[in-house]
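Thread: manganese (II) ion complex, take 2
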Amino acid sequence: MIKILHLSDIHMGSGFSHGRINPETGLNTRLEDFVNSLSQCIDRSLAEPVDLVLFGGDAFPDATPPPYVQQAFASQFRRLADANIPTVLLVGNHDQHSQGQGGASLCIYRTLGVPGVVVGDTLTTHRIQTRNGSVQVLTLPWLTRSTLMTRQETEGLSLVEINQLLTERLRVVLEAETRRLDPNVPTVLLGHLMTDNASLGAERFLAVGKGFTLPLSLLTRPCFDYVALGHVHRHQNLNKSNDPPVIYPGSIERVDFSEEKEDKGYVMVELEKGRVQWEFCPLPVRAFHTIEVDISKAEDPQAAIMKALAKRDIQDAVVRLIYKLRSEQLDCIDSASLHDALSPAHTYTIQPELVSQLARPRVPELSASNSIDPIEALKTYLNNREDLKDIAASMLEAAHKLLADDMEVSLASATNE
Ligand SMILES: [Mn+2]
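Output below.
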């Protein structure tokens, strides 16, 4: 039986806005949180000890992390190399430099020949010898348009068509790869990808542009005993029948507020040919709390906010307080005592929102990004205001007149120059 620790989406060096500088180390406390979570994964790997560690990709926010962040990452994985535990580092979208054309940050480990470290930057099968027998790991790094297709092939195609073409290509390449597998050796597919039935977290916003989506049926093939994924930050098993399990362990720390309610952790796997068991192991990560209060109808707005704050355990947490109020209530808020009440938090932000602004949603066609002439804008506005229907015609007439007058004035002033 082979024991595997599967973790993913470390994103070390992100979320600094939720931290502060630790005066003792000079480092952002969120970097220290991420390092601490990763070191707990490595601690567990050494304590078991596991036979193999699989990392599902996205080591840093981008492919060129500052040296001190890279060093913090490397010194944790170094501990696995020292303990002779083989490790596969898969390349995620955030690890690729300029869409994969500029290499990947993780490739440095292969270049340096770090013992036991395999870098998964191509679609290929690695046969890895562990203390408890050998295992096949098929690595499927993040795919970009250029991975399996030429520019000429994709020219003029829509994103949906490109996605279909890529899926077909991948199906063929995967088929060829799986035919080369030794059917007697336990096999893992390690992929950084988005499947069509995954529920999303922050990675939606983190990725530049939308990536490709692969059908789950491509992954649930009988030749795989376990499918180890990365990319989606919310832990989930996509194949409830577990034949094979298709697992996103999720990120190891909260990257932002969209992950506020998610458990963070890693997955322990026990693997034999044709038999697999897995377990999600939560990590004790820092809490994030959104405290949202509508005080617009409160008699004592300040007391209403304080009451909402008192209900939550904000000690050492990353907190955002959002309160909705009417503009005439602004003077009722004592912000000094709000800061005081929030001081036990690790970090916090306070976001007041005026309800008068919230009550009137913008007409989408009139957003700041569209530029249309004033008469067209007024027509669009009037079309959205049933209540102004009776006077719409005369409003338009008045607007025409105003604009005509304005023309005359500006022509007149132009001649004065
Ligand atoms: Mn990713």
